[in-house]
Amino acid sequence: QYQWMLDPVVTTADIDIPAIEALSFLLIGSNSLGCSDSLQINLTVNPKPEIELIVDTDLKLIRVEPNEFQQYDFMSGNEILQSGSSNQLIYDGLTLVNDSILVRATTGENCISQAQAYIEPMNEYNAFSPNGDGINDIFRKGDFIRVFSRWGVEIFNGDQGWDGRYNGTMVAPGTYYYLHEIRNSAGDLLRTEKGAVTLVKE
Fold it and tell me: Which of 25, 55, 76, 144 is within CB 3.0–4.6 Å of 159 for a Cys-Cys bond?
């Protein structure tokens, strides 16, 4: 038989005490021959781990803080997107269920913390109509872009958004090509995205 001893509680084969603080148990086991042995069990209660998810929409990257866990599992729906010691995931090009990523972080003591982040779908601009009505007049305001004609002539660069003009004159309707330069806070170029936009005259 067994006795679990936690002063002043003495029970037999089972013990059920909420582990809300560090505890020390004495387990005594004995057999029908009168032989017995004891074991001291020290229970450590670790603080509940908490994580924060930081989403960088420019880099299309999700980062978990703090970077102190042993394993990070990034999931969307029932699919594991990435599992390992890295606390970062680049989600560019990945198919996300309900536009969300669930992150489960595990400590060396097998304590688990999880959090979910919702990734705003990227609405790619493919047309705009700079007619002065205040609706869809500016192309990609806030992004540093370079816009080129079909012959490769650069007709705009900057982050204030393209209003469809070149040297003050409205260009002809049609398809134009752009480079979107993504930089970090220090101004270093991280990558360049290419695309096309159609200028519509309404």
Answer: 144
Structure tokens given for 151 = 């012959």
Q: What is the mean pLDDT of residues 152-174?
A: 94
Amino acid at 105: A
pLDDT of residue 95: 77
Say whether pLDDT at 99 is over 80. no
Q: Is the dihedral of CA 91, 94, 100, 102 positive or negative?
A: negative
In this chain, the answer to whether the domains covering 52-118 and 127-199 adopt an identical fold is yes
Is the domain 127-199 a CATH 2.60.40 member?
yes
> Residue ranges of the alpha helices (H) in 53-166?
none
Sign of CA dihedral 152, 156, 161, 167: negative
Taking a C-beta distance cutoff of 8 angstroms, is the pair 57, 43 a contact? Answer: no
Can you tell me the distance from the alpha carbon of 102 to that of 96, in angstroms, rounded to the nearest whole number?
10
Question: Domain 52-118: which topology?
Answer: Immunoglobulin-like (2.60.40)
In this structure, what are the phi and psi dihedrals at residue 109, rounded to the nearest 5 degrees?
Answer: -95, 15
